[in-house]
Amino acid sequence: MTPAAGRTVKIGLVQSACTAAREANITQALAGIAAAANQGAEVVCLQEVFAGEYPCQAEDHQRFVEAEPVPGPLTDRLSAAACEHEVVVVASVFERRAAGLFHNTAVIFDTDGSRAGTYRKMHIPDDPHYYEKFYFAPGDSGFLSVPTRRVAIGPLVCWDQWYPEAARLTALAGAEVLVYPTAIGWLDGEENWHAEQYEAWDTMLRSHAIANGVFVVAVNRTGREGELRFWGASVVYAPNGQRLAVAAHDEPATLVVDCDLDRIEWSRTRWPFFRDRRIDAYDGLLKRWGQQ
Prior knowledge:
Layout (H helix, E strand, L loop, with lengths): L7 E8 L6 H17 L4 E4 L26 H13 L2 E11 L2 E9 L5 E6 L11 H4 L10 E2 L4 E4 L8 H9 L4 E6 L2 E3 L6 H19 L2 E6 L1 E4 L2 E4 L3 E3 L5 E4 L6 E8 L1 H9 L22
Parallel strand pairs: 1-2, 2-3, 7-8, 8-10
Antiparallel strand pairs: 1-15, 3-4, 4-5, 6-7, 9-12, 10-13, 11-12, 13-14
Helix pairs in contact: 1-2, 4-5
């Protein structure tokens, strides 16, 4: 897909606090899609695994019952919402792909409700209260651009945010907007590092926008779940690194942001990073370390 020039796309971000009440979480997400659409959004992005509390704070086999197939009942409701409001929807779900095989999956629905694309999270963390390797297999979809009627979406998920290779390959695939459904927050007992942790995350998002000349959208959770306080601050960056909008840390929010896609060409002709890439010299990126 080669999008036409001169387009401004309104992108909605739905930042929410989740509870153990699954149906309430889904209902608030659907209400967020409707609210963003009513404010003119043409693309609406939800946070990571929005249908429930973040499942990975402990290794608990009981949490696997929360997973659903794709397509399935949850994605059917997202499809219906996209069609009803004539918006593109980007949503992260806990996918049951087969018996014993699960993924953290971003699903993209076009304005007619059709499934435009599916991305399975490639980078899977294993840290205190982020025990995702217990739950999710690494994705095998590769890094991709999903054409929709509004914009070319580059779906990535949370931990993918820290990898410049992921952002680069997604941009090279043709994505105009990198979208990161996210669940990241502060741990109790680490208060001395809270500010720098948030700033590091925010800096990475901004750097992906600048280095690739794309819009970057991150939709984070907010609220406390167990020992995690999700830091919200859902954000949109323009291709030159300008912050276009940011939500508060500690409360739900629905943002709708104008993204002038002509800024991609403008930024890439002033900072021609793609022109000057030394693709003949990057073989070392395929090594785990050094020349080994």
